[in-house]
Amino acid sequence: MKEFTTFGEIRYERPDFEALKNFYIALNEKVQNANSYEEVKACIQEGEAYSARVSTMTTVASIRHTLDTSDKFYEEEDRYINLRSPEVMPYFQAFSVSLLNSPFRKDIDAEYGDFFLKSVKLGVDSFSEKNISLMQEENELVDRYQRIMAACKIPFNGETCNLYGIRKYFSSPDREVRKSAWKKYSEFFAEHEREMEEIFDKLVKIRNEMGRNMGFDNFVRLGYMQQGRLDYGEKDVAAFRRQVETVLVPFCSELYKAQAKRIGVGEIMCYDEEFIFPDGNAVPVGNRACLVEQAKKMYHEMSPETGEFIDFMLEHELMDLDNKPNKASTGYMTSLAEYKAPFVFSCFNGTTGDVDVLTHEMGHAFAGYMAMRTQPLMEQWGESTDIAEIHSMSMEQFAYPYAELFFGDRADKYRFQHLQEALTFVPFGVAVDEFQHIVYEHPELTPAERTAEWRKLEKKYMPWRNYDGDAFFEKGGWWYHKIHIFHYPFYYINYTLTTMGAMEFKKKMAENPGSCWKDYLTLCKVGGSLGYLDTLRAAHLSVPFEAGSVEKATGYAMKILERQIAEKENLK
Q1: Torsion of CA 87, 91, 93, 94, to 10 degrees
Q2: Contacts of 8 (CB under 8 A, 6+ apart)
Q3: b/e per residue, 32-57, with b = 16+ CB within 10 A?
Q4: Mean pLDDT of all residues in 496-515
Q5: Fewer beta carbons within 10 angstroms: which end of the chain, N or C?
Q6: Contacting residues for 266 by C-beta, under 8 A, at least 6 apart
């Protein structure tokens, strides 16, 4: 691990992709000519060190670009990296193939576990040189979408808001303010509809061409492979969606009926959904510096491991949380491989979402921190995406006992609100997944037809959603705001699958905290060294595709909400 002071002091150097090509050519030759496993192992380690340097520089450029999308230098660097990085893939793939064909493969499995080479093979099987130019075009289109989102400037309530900023008004106690904020949000996307429509239409065509280049009918199978899904498929996911429709959709409908009664409206409108209590939602106490200090206290009380982690993050200034002009409207955790350092990015807006960042994204960061110090290879630091969100969503649940640190005497409100939102999110999440299946399985659909399909899914999974006559959203425009649909195809179902794991951990923490934390640490340390099903088994978690799994995972949380709704004094 390379030593460093703070993120801001890391010196950026443009990655030399021609040198990287030549490096892999030479490394591949070494593997092919190796006479012993020790020689192969040395090649793997040499590749790790070089890749860590390149990965770190590309990540630094990406972070600094999202920190200020108007910075022309890092805009150009990010564009350069997106353009040139796919060109290296054939050379990396050749190296991977040589590892797979090595006479010392059994030794590699013995050292790193057999899942390492399985994931390497998946990477090989999901790549074609025919797709390089398409990947470059895909990156350009995604960046174009992000620039539109980041450039948002909405005049509202005496200030100029970006997309994060305007959303804080979605939970205003004043219903007219909420309604007006939603209208402004709608107007932004309606204004940019044609451009976003064009971007997504091109993305669908490009991705389906990628799939056909791999020998598939469309992009769906390739999309699953890109998500690292080795031990389940589309039928399993569809079965999970049906469980959500049967178990959670009716329950969430009842939650919103109770909410309508609580806040005194005849029917919940879209602009009422985030307003949970008649006297206003819980809001964090204090500014960003105060919240971070309270997070430090929480993580030190939670465990020795999380205490060490938060100190590392603060010492090296590995969080950028303030909402600023031209800052990308997103939130994420990423890693600086060379330093074994996570980095957390967000845009605080004075809502409960600020605390969610300090738990959700920091959950990702903690898992990365542990895996980078446990697993020997970069390939094994990052778990599959269907596992990754368990870390983050479970950490949100583990933070419940510390809610008073962030919300004072409104902590109970926060706990209720957060738990309700965790469950009501799931139907939306599966709608996003089914939408993507429809889109990529039916590339002949026009943009208008795709949007109409989204509205059908809203009525299926979110029957409570009422746009109160808003023309853009009523025709199905709500999906445009979700960056994952543009940037990370087939990722979003992971949030719903992992909600099941988080709800299981919630129940475990209530019943046996010691055992629960042990299982959670195991989950984090495993990283990407095991497949999806084996990772669940290692952490003693259920498989979400099995019959009855959704009810089993969410039953405890549903009973909590039902009890608290019945005890009206808790919801004043």
Answers
A1: 150
A2: 317
A3: eebeebeebbebbeebeeebbbbbbb
A4: 96
A5: C
A6: 260
- Cα separation of 240 and 529, whole Å? 25
Determine the Cα–Cα distance for residues 181 and 166; give it in Å rounded to an integer: 6
Task: Calculate the average pLDDT of the chain.
Answer: 95
Q: Are strands 341-345 and 159-161 parallel, antiparallel or unpaired?
A: unpaired
As a whole number of angstroms, the distance between CA 317 and CA 314 comes to 5
CA distance 271 to 548: 33
Residue 331 — very low, low, confident or very high, per pLDDT cuts 50/70/90? Answer: confident
Q: First and final CA of the chain: distance in angstroms?
A: 51
Type of residue found at 95 = F
- 3-state class (DSSP) for residue 364: helix
Q: Among the residues of 193-303, which ranges form H helices?
A: 193-213, 220-226, 234-243, 249-263, 288-302
CA–CA dist 250, 504 (Å, integer): 21
Predicted confidence at residue 2, as pLDDT, reads 85
Are 407 and 284 in contact, with CB atoms under 8 Å apart? yes
Encode pLDDT of 79-122 as tens digits. Answer: 999 999 999 999 999 999 999 999 999 999 999 999 999 999 99
| Chain segment 252-303, per-residue pLDDT in tens | 999 999 999 999 999 999 999 999 999 999 999 989 999 999 999 999 999 9
- C-alpha 49/C-alpha 1 separation (Å) is 10
Read off the pTM.
0.90
572 pLDDT above the threshold of 70: no
Residue 44 Cα to chain centre, angstroms: 29
Amino acid of residue 356: D
Domain ranges of the chain: 7-129
Nearest 5°: the CA angle 488, 493, 495 is: 95
What is residue 319's three-state secondary structure? strand
* Integer CA distances (angstroms), 1 to 38, 275, 336, 372, 382, in order: 22, 46, 10, 10, 17
Beta bridge pairs of residue 344: 319, 333
pLDDT for 568 equals 66
Q: For the chain, what is the largest distance between any 2 Cα atoms, rounded to a whole number of angstroms? A: 77
Strand-strand pairing, 319-320 and 341-345: parallel
